[in-house]
Design brief:
heterodimer; A: alpha/beta; Rossmann fold; 2 domains; six-stranded mixed β-sheet; 32% helix; B: mainly alpha; Serine Threonine Protein Phosphatase 5, Tetratricopeptide repeat; 9 helices; Dihydroxyacetone_Kinase (chain A)
Chain lengths: 333, 219
């Protein structure tokens, strides 16, 4: 294993230390329990947004703490959910009485740890609501299983709902908006290579030189199936069509599109994917109103890409355009 | 009778088994999960060892329930992932089940494990056949209770529970995962053992110390 790390057990804490040193005007952190929160003290009463999850997905979630997005983020060990202590402490730090929305990606561990934290916080009389993001169309949805994973849709949801909270919406409305966004965002990804979890030291799965994992998540877990390598245009279509079908997008619809790198993909290749995505949607009369192309939710050094489409409307676009100032996403201020 | 000191011996043995099998558990998880089950359980059980203190520690005057609750809190705050809340909730329920008792008899031990199973099932919303730790745990609990009910001594009953847990873990291999990260693989989760079912086998294997077997030799 060759990585720019020191001791394996210090990877997460040293990375967050660096994030905070690089952005002293934006974020601070507490060590025990471990969480990142906004540097600026709240001047107005607003609903606080708290998320978290395993580390290794940078910039998610610490990179999205700041004006217009999250109030705090709880980093777990690499690919491991944070624990209830972290979530409870983070919520108490950023709650100013207007209540807190927990944004949880749909993974068994994350859901259980946030659920335990939620129970503890309610016992202490803190107003808390929870939204679960499960946007990955590669996984079949079913009442009897864990259901779909939360992936790229999380980034778009945190931006849009963060803007509504900044506008002073109350907890109930913020939660409803979060549910609405979660209901209209879908993603799918693929990997050209696996990734190496530092504590393990070797790649999570082995992939031949001419093989691709289709339908991956963000934890280096194997995908739904393995296929021979294909040109970028074919692969882009393989990711896009299931999303279009699932969202039942038709001519005249508007979307926000995210073409996301898994950590080890050159931006050059992401633009090749975006080029085809734009063409596929245009042919179907679907307009990309806003887009992001880059590494926004990653899987360590994995080579790969995910596509996320959010069926937009005027309200969603208006919140999207409002100012945001975090270390990973910034516009309008 | 089993007192706090004996429960501590069980937990020490469990920590040792997890430590020894850490890489095996992680390798199983790499195949159908996210390659951290061994690492996470080892981190949690090393933290549990820390609160157990020295073997000659005078801190043995706490009741079994208090010890089990402390273990639960350590697992919940140190393990993370799904295993932390699942094992943590199991130990919390074990603590509730033993109540105020200073000493536990064989039936108390069986009830303690059964309560842990219920906690685990509720937290994970999982049942037999979902390809999870429940597949090993549930079989171990029923083997333990029925063996004791038939009048077998604790040692034989624990041996029955261990082989039932192993059998349950083996039976996860052909299943399609319905819970946890392996469920994302769908059909591809077939043919691989659930790592959580194996860490559960070790939990029962360690319990042989209740019958004076398998203790760590510090000589």
């Amino acid at each position: 294993m060759k990585k720019l790390i020191n001791r394996v057990e210090d990877v997460v804490s040293e990375s967050i230390e660096g994030l905070v040193l690089a952005n002293p005007d934006l974020v601070r952190y507490e060590r025990e329990p471990f969480f990142v929160y906004r540097a600026s003290s709240q001047t107005k009463e607003k609903v606080a947004l708290v998320s978290g999850g395993g580390s290794g997905h940078e910039p998610l979630h610490g990179g999205y703490v700041g004006y217009g997005m999250l109030d705090a983020a709880c980093p777990g060990e690499i690919f491991t959910s944070p624990v209830p202590d972290q979530i409870v402490s983070a919520v108490k730090k950023v709650d100013h009485g207007a209540g807190v929305l927990l944004i949880v990606k749909n993974y068994t561990g994350d859901v259980m740890n946030f659920e335990m934290a939620h129970e503890i916080l309610e016992m202490e009389g803190i107003k808390v609501e929870r939204v679960i993001v499960s946007d990955d169309v590669a996984v079949e949805d079913s009442l009897y299983t864990t259901g779909r994973r939360g992936v790229g849709g999380t980034v778009l949801l945190e931006k849009i709902v963060g803007a509504a909270a900044e506008e002073g919406w109350d907890l109930e409305r913020v939660k409803d908006l979060a549910e609405r966004v979660a209901g209209r965002v879908r993603s799918m990804g693929l990997a050209l290579s696996s990734c190496t979890v530092p504590a393990k030291g070797s790649p999570t799965f082995a992939l031949g030189h001419d093989e691709i994992e289709l339908g991956i998540g963000i934890h280096g877990e194997p995908g739904r199936k393995r296929i021979p390598k294909q040109p970028a245009d074919t692969l882009t279509e393989m990711l896009t069509q299931p999303i279009i079908d699932d969202l039942a997008l038709t001519s005249g619809d508007s979307v926000i599109a995210l073409v996301n790198g898994m950590g080890g993909t050159p931006l050059m290749e992401l633009y090749i994917v975006y080029r085809k995505l734009e063409q596929l949607l245009r042919e179907r009369g679907i307009a990309i109103q806003r887009n992001l192309v880059g590494n926004y939710i990653t899987s360590l050094e994995m080579q790969g890409v995910s596509i996320t489409l959010l069926k937009a409307d005027e309200e969603i676009l208006a919140f999207w355009d409002l100012p945001v100032h975090t270390s990973a996403l910034r516009w309008g201020m | 009778m089993i007192d706090t000191a004996r429960l501590k011996a069980w937990l020490r043995r469990y920590a040792e088994l997890i430590h020894v099998h850490k890489d095996e558990l992680t390798a199983l998880d790499a195949t159908i999960g996210d390659a951290d089950h061994g690492t996470n359980m080892d981190r949690g059980m090393q933290a549990v060892l820390h609160i157990l203190g020295d073997e000659e520690d005078a801190n043995e005057n706490i009741r079994p329930a208090e010890l089990l609750k402390q273990v639960a809190m350590v697992l919940i705050s140190k393990v993370g992932g799904a295993s932390g809340p699942l094992y943590g909730t199991a130990f919390l329920r074990m603590a509730q089940a033993v109540g105020e008792k200073e000493q536990l008899n064989e039936e108390d031990i069986a009830q303690m494990f059964a309560a842990g199973l219920n906690g685990m099932k509720e937290r994970g919303k999982a049942d037999l056949g979902d390809k999870t730790m429940v597949d090993a745990y549930a079989r171990a609990v029923s083997a333990l209770s029925s063996s004791l009910a038939e009048g077998f001594p604790l040692k034989e009953s624990l041996a029955q529970a261990i082989s039932a847990a192993k059998e349950g873990s083996d039976q996860t291999i052909p299943l399609i995962a319905r819970k946890g990260r392996a469920s994302y693989l769908g059909e591809r989760s077939r043919g691989h053992r659930d790592p959580g079912s194996l860490s559960t086998v070790y939990l029962f294997e360690a319990a042989l110390v209740f019958a004076g077997e398998g203790e760590i030799n510090h000589a």
